[in-house]
Design a protein that fits this description.
The protein is of the alpha/beta class. 27% of the residues lie in helices and 18% in strands. It is built from 13 helices and 23 strands. The chain has a 7-stranded mixed beta sheet, with helices on both faces. A 6-stranded mixed beta sheet has the order 20-21-19-18-22-23, covered by helices on one side. The protein has a 3-stranded mixed beta sheet with strand order 11-16-13. It is globular, with a radius of gyration of 24 Å.
Length: 484
């Protein structure tokens, strides 16, 4: 078996960015050899007893960003079928369990078929998390997996860490995103690779067929993002959020939260490039930005049903806890405007070729009978004016988050509370620049509308929506969308 290696590479995430990284190349021999060998310009060459944990040296340097299509870094002799992308920041508490879940993927992958790319995002724990990760590698190396380590001395956030890890991977890999505190299901790699390969081929074939029929599908479809369901650690964490992501995929709910749960996400490397990588920065909702950028290019989404792909750990004080409700709403509203209202250069020219059932093929994924999916290209109706269902807090905050152009398109707020009907509201909190939007009753609701009521709080809203749909003939994902 070739000597497995762990390489600390200087790789910048995406065009227009630079990241300070360590430049040392590190080689660890397989367990049982009695020694650990380190090589690299920053630390020279040394041989130390296997019982001694080596200090991982760094040499900060500004590294020019790679260009799409250029060699992504050191490429193994055999391109891995799947690369687990793991961002790490002070992750000593759970990284061992995370890496152990990769080591026991079922069925066991052949040698060099599975790789790990782990990027340490300027951890402040003195290297403890990375050292723990190194100690957890022997089972992976014994199985023939290739492991690439990289690190930065300046934080780029979760998105920057994922980008840096992906940039160091070969072009042919399917990328499986796994956070350093989550646990992959034993069949995560096998299901993700099969779904990405099959769905990419099907969607691209549909685009080619549309092109042959006179559409503009010849531009191609930038692949699919594949996700699924998850369990929580602990099991009772965030029940409403878990229940939301247990639903079947639907365009109508894709702006209520991320179209797919980030801890379950997988895609081809070329799809990551086409979407422009993840937004970078601490406190940035990188999952929303990446997934909506993919949708704006006409890309597809596939959600696998059945068993969970990952155990998603709730970590108090984690990256998601630092994101405010207002920031998240702003990103989702901006995507809604671009993809539905088309107020900022949305994908209108490609709608016929890449939107809806005309291009997204029926899903027939082997072993995934419950898979659902679709695209987020502009719906085939006029959204130049629309209503907002809810004159309460959520509706007013949604209205305030709209751009001035979109705010001017709101014709009415709709509410089931008779105490609100007949009044008028402006922006968020009633202090907006476009006041005087009337509040009407549910009987006056007409498509299109945005639903800004929480359907899962047991207040009868789901029945009210069903009745409104029956009365108006509105179609979810065309005539109305959920943003709360």
């Amino acid at each position: 078996m070739p000597s497995p290696s762990v390489t600390d590479v200087g790789a910048a995430p995406m065009p227009g960015m630079s990241v300070a990284t360590g430049a040392a190349a590190t080689t660890r021999t397989a367990p049982g050899t009695g020694a650990t060998t380190l090589t690299g310009a920053a630390i020279g060459t040394a041989t130390v007893p296997a019982a001694t944990r080596p200090a991982v040296a760094t040499q900060p340097a500004a590294v020019a960003a790679s260009k799409a299509g250029s060699p992504p870094g050191p490429i193994p002799a055999v391109t891995p079928a799947v690369t687990f992308i793991i961002p790490l920041h002070n992750g000593a508490a759970h990284i061992t369990a995370t890496l152990a879940s990769v080591a026991v993927q079922d069925p066991p992958p052949p040698a060099t078929a599975t790789a790990i790319a782990l990027h340490d995002d300027a951890s402040t724990d003195g290297g403890v998390g990375l050292a723990v990760a190194l100690d957890a590698l022997p089972p992976l190396l014994s199985a023939g997996m290739s492991v690439t380590l990289s690190r930065s001395s300046v934080r780029g956030g979760v998105g920057g860490a994922r980008n840096a890890a992906v940039t160091a991977t070969p072009a042919g890999s399917v990328l499986v995103f796994l956070d350093a505190d989550d646990v992959a299901a034993p069949d995560r790699a096998a299901r993700s690779v099969a779904a990405v390969r099959h769905a990419d081929a099907a969607v691209n074939a549909a685009a080619a067929t549309a092109a042959a029929g006179g559409g503009d599908g010849a531009r191609g479809c930038p692949g699919v993002l594949v996700g699924g369901t998850f369990t929580r650690l602990p099991a009772d964490a965030t029940p409403r959020y878990t229940a939301y992501h247990a639903r079947r995929w639907a365009a109508a709910t894709a702006f209520r939260d991320a179209p797919l749960a980030m801890p379950t996400l997988a895609c081809s490397r070329s799809t990551w490039v086409a979407a422009g990588g993840f937004p970078v920065g601490v406190g940035v909702p990188e999952d929303l930005g990446f997934q909506y950028a993919h949708g704006a290019r006409g890309g597809g989404y596939v959600k696998l049903g059945g068993s969970a792909l990952v155990a998603y750990r709730r970590v108090v004080g984690g990256a998601s806890d630092g994101l405010s409700r207002r920031v998240l709403l702003g990103v989702r509203v901006a995507a809604f405007e671009r993809l539905v209202l088309r107020t900022s250069g949305g994908n209108t020219g490609r709608a016929a070729a890449l939107g809806g059932a005309a291009v997204f093929p029926p899903l027939d994924l082997p072993g995934e009978a419950d898979a659902t999916g679709g695209c987020l290209t502009p719906p085939a109706r006029d959204w130049s004016s629309f209503m907002i269902w809810s004159a309460g807090r959520d509706g007013r905050q949604l209205y305030g988050a709209l751009s001035p152009t979109a705010r001017a398109s709101v014709t009415a707020f709709v509410d089931i509370d008779p105490r609100k009907v007949g009044r008028s509201v402006g922006g968020s909190g009633g202090r907006g620049a476009h006041p005087g939007v009337p509040v009407v009753g549910l009987h006056d609701l007409t498509p299109p509308w945005v639903c800004a009521v929480a359907l899962d709080r047991g207040r009868g809203y789901e029945a009210a929506v069903a009745a409104a749909v029956a009365r108006t003939g509105a179609v979810a994902g065309v005539d109305f969308f959920y943003l709360v």
